[in-house]
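Researcher: Structure for this, please.
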Amino acid sequence: MHRLSRRSVSAVLRNAATRYRPLSSSFPLDHHPAVQSDTTKRWCSVLTTGSSNGIGDTKLFNMKNNPVVGRRFESTAAASDASAPPAEKFEYQAEVSRLMDLIVNSLYSNKDVFLRELISNASDALDKLRFLSVTDPKLLTDAADLDIRIQADKDNGIITITDSGIGMTRQELVDCLGTIAQSGTAKFLKALKESKDAGTDSNLIGQFGVGFYSAFLVAERVEVSTKSPKSDKQYVWEGEANSSSYTIREETDPAKLIPRGTRLTLYLKHDDKGYAHPEKIQKLVKNYSLFVSFPIYTWQEKGYTKEVEVDEDPAEASKGEQDGKTEKKKKTKTVVERYWDWELTNETQPIWLRNPKEVTTEEYNEFYKNTFNEYLEPLASSHFTTEGEVEFRSILYVPSIAPTGKDDIVNPKTKNIRLYVKRVFISDDFDGELFPRYLSFIKGVVDSNDLPLNVSREILQESRIVRIMRKRLVRKAFDMILGITMSEDKDDYVKFWENFGKHIKLGCIEDRENHKRIAPLLRFFSSQSEEDMISLDEYVENMKAEQKDIYYIAADSVLFLVDPIDEVAIQNLKSYKDKNFVDISKEDLDLGDKNEEKEKEIKQEFGQTCDWIKKRLGDRVASVQVSNRLSTSPCVLASGKFGWSANMERLMKAQTVGDPSSLEFMRSRRVFEINPEHPIIKTLNAVCKSNPNDEEALRAIDLLYDTALISSGFTPESPAQLGGKIYEMMNMALLGKWGTSADGFQQQVNPTSYVPETVEAEVVEPTEAGSKK
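Model: Predicted structure, token format:
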């Protein structure tokens, strides 16, 4: 045997690993024809060039006389594909009982939907019959009425659902109920599409073929008795919740025969027998299947009153005879006679499917009150149909007041939108899928025929169709709110803004795409209208000719932002009708009336004073500048372009998890602006040039800064120290005018002769009246 050195082997393997596909260094030969007779597995190195243990010639490995390196080799299994036996095909196997358990207990999160699913199946059966009867009228001869009847036996825990639909043959029972996830409705719709009559409108609901099994959510045993016009026999399908098999038999009891259709009998589990109460059945029908296109009757107990005679007391009767009365009225009492009868539970024509021109305002309002349990009429409503890529019908409402006790507008989860698919209620539990959270107050119904739902039909899946539907719903909501602004009664929008103004402002922050729709809805107080709120359109109309921007907070013509959310909303809105929003509390304010030559002179005159004041204030301000916005005040503390305003600083301080480091950084962006026309600033300018180290002047700068903090809306760092400075200045002013001698006579005092020491005001903790300390 030829041997390779360890170094050679390593080199060969490295070369092979870098240039060719990795191969196993050894592989079994027990599948090769030359060694099939050998029952012991043997292994051969691919590096062997000669024979190995007499197993066979190396030609079997396609190595010939060359080493393995430099050629690509396949395993013997790949080399012998042509002679290998064909692969066997297997079907997936499933433990049926386990699969049924998954379908029943994993797909559905709410047991109440079992009745919705079974009613939907019954509605599909009726729809199929109605469609087929167009070409074959004989199908309706056995039973003309197309309806669904539900009867509950609360004593025995049994629910019976009967429809007069198309029914099923024996083979259809096997195919539809015996094959999990096979939908008879889906097969029927496929046949319709392939037929010439594919254009016929259909309201068939079923899609997935698992709705029937929802019966096992509440039933331990289900019995399906069905009669098809195609068969002269009636068959019964029976299945249990925890069984992997079912039975089918022919119905032989004459009392249980039905002319056509299907009767489902649910034998409820012990814990779910509460569903067998007639009131519960009626409630579920009205919640989920109120608008199914066929009448649904429920078996209900009813009563009527009548008068019945009451037997007289023997003593009173004998007394009457002694009195000689010949005629006497018989005594009666009112009793209630109880009986059971069928009662229509659903409305077959939902209001949103009607022509909007035929629906009155009173009908819209009544539907709103009944559907959402409201007692006040809505402010506005919108009834519309969208067609094209996504088709749906909807009615939207704007409530007249916001819900009490729900001031938090951050939570997008509401039950204000009721989603229907083919008139069957699906869900009202949404988390922003149909409306953004700032429009979560909108109420209404949405009905579509082709929404992407999960198998349980409880969850709306995220898809392009849902996004398109959301966009159209949002636009319709804006149109409806805009209609309120145009109402003849101006109080309608005032009422709307008082209840939902914060929601609209939140939209400025969260929905940039709809800024153009949100901005006309905003309302603010302004310096021109302090009593009544105005729109941005009204503000722009009243702007001065030279005014280029929309100012807010403080000036001759500004918007007053009084709500905490206002500033963030306006900052996100940025502009309106080509007019930028400008916060005049920020530095470098341009009011449009600049005189560059005059400003240059003033900056030269007060440049040294600005540096002097900045040196005194230090890191408390970012810079000191000459102001062009002040007229009567000596100074103002403005925010830097990228710093927090006073309002924002208060909001950030109030945050529970606020970052102190960012607070200090943004605070340092303040800009101290001085009014060069004010006497105090002129005096300080003179002191700066003559005696910049004067203690009184430096203390005056400190007091100016603290005063500017308060007047600009900021919070002073040390209120107690500021109080001490104010008391000191008051004392100096009073002593300067009213000096008091020891004998009580007033005399003039030179204020410069008294230099008090600055002290902090005493802080006294509040105590209850009458308490002792």
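Researcher: Any notable elements?
Model: The mean pLDDT is 76. The first strand starts at residue 26 and ends at 28.
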